[in-house]
């Protein structure tokens, strides 16, 4: 659930929730800790996503609240609506008040989080933020702060390898490729795209990249890929850096009445995975958010016992999913 991943495609999050398991024995709400954490922290999770506008994030917030209440936890859900200033103001209010027992933040702008993280440390409130330490100005794990990030290099490598395999199997290793990329400024963009293209070249040297199209959302991606298809009617393969790119490509080729022989995806939402099962998408490098949610909340619960100890650096699990499993 790295923030850049939401800004790159934002429909990749399955709503199935198996998080908060480690809180099962924590019933009720304790007295808020004062100052630097001299008392028990309340069993209250502050969940601050980028926004509640995306259906997946709205669904996630509802799922977290429902599951947490069954485990004796309260969840305070905030909605900064993609506004970094609003997000820091909301977080500062609830953390400074002593109501927060832990905070899970999908930061709109990681560099704006400096004072919030210091406030949480001073209050002894453990925090999990999405991204790597360097995005927040740190060189490694910090007291009371856990970082959770997507390994974009590994994801890009898997994406390119899978498209190369498809082209070797179905196109004799040759053909024109379109790359549906993420928008400019997204964290991980450069290393992801380089890894994907390097892996494609290594796996299917005869593949030729002819165009990049920015896949900001599915509708625009479909339109832009349709336009690219008019200029390159013999396009045979598409690499989707997000679900919108892959699904937009399927829509564009279908609208043009042309077959799309090879398409691979990075993200793995439910619709994409169904298309993989149906053979429309060759492979998806699927982010395992359910597993990530579990490890993230388990870590926050553990951190409550010693909020001044260094947190962890977690990696969102990934899995290559093909029609055969």
Automatic annotation (TrEMBL):
Cross-referenced PROSITE patterns: PROKAR_LIPOPROTEIN (PS51257)
Subcellular location: Cell envelope
CDD domains hit by this protein: PBP1_ABC_sugar_binding-like
SUPFAM superfamilies, per the entry: Periplasmic binding protein-like I
Transferase found in the keyword field: no
Residues covered by the Periplasmic binding protein domain: 60-303
Keywords linked to the UniProt accession: Signal
Signal peptide start and end residues: 1-26
Family: Belongs to the bacterial solute-binding protein 2 family.
Protein name, as recorded: Periplasmic binding protein domain-containing protein
UniProt source species: Dactylosporangium darangshiense
Taxonomic placement: Bacteria, Bacillati, Actinomycetota, Actinomycetes, Micromonosporales
